[in-house]
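User: Fold this, then the next.

Assistant: Folding the first:
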Amino acid sequence: MQIRFFKPFDELAEKGEIQLKVDKPILVKELFSLIEKQIPSFERYVKKENDEIQSFFVLFVRGDEILKMDECVRDDDVIKVLPPISGG
């Protein structure tokens, strides 16, 4: 799985992308854990309580689709990691 980081996450990761290998489809919340293992500072963008993700300050996007925590991703996916968008 190709994970592409966009500002400010590319600076946090110290690279524009990483490759993750998953043998079967996994939930987006599991993807958070895999990224945290490779990039421990990523954890500050995720609020947890009793090891359960409560909220997050990052968007995972596949194509044009913003992914929800209970959706599955696969090894052949390209996932973009973006900050939440706000406007005024």
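Now the next one, as you asked:
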Amino acid sequence: MNLKNNIQLIGNVGELPTVTSVGESSKVARISLATNRSYKDAEGNKQTATQWHTVEAWGHLAELAENYIDKGKEIAIGGELQYNTYEDSEGVKRTKAFIRASEIQLLGGK
């Protein structure tokens, strides 16, 4: 069995991407992406649940994010789910999930 770690999301950007230079020739962009799920509650009223995702894009994808992605923009991303484990200021071990993008597609026109 050939298992793959692959995730695809379509959502709206929550804020301007944060782009940082890494070394002399590479960049990384961190993008906050919101996805929505609509459903009806027990009384039949339409509800929307929003999930927030952290997306990390490297190299040419970071440059694309820096130049073309604005707050509110609808984008599609493909990549893999990764985890970062760290120790907080109180010595508690924490794990944060993020998506490492391998592709980004701009949607929704201008």
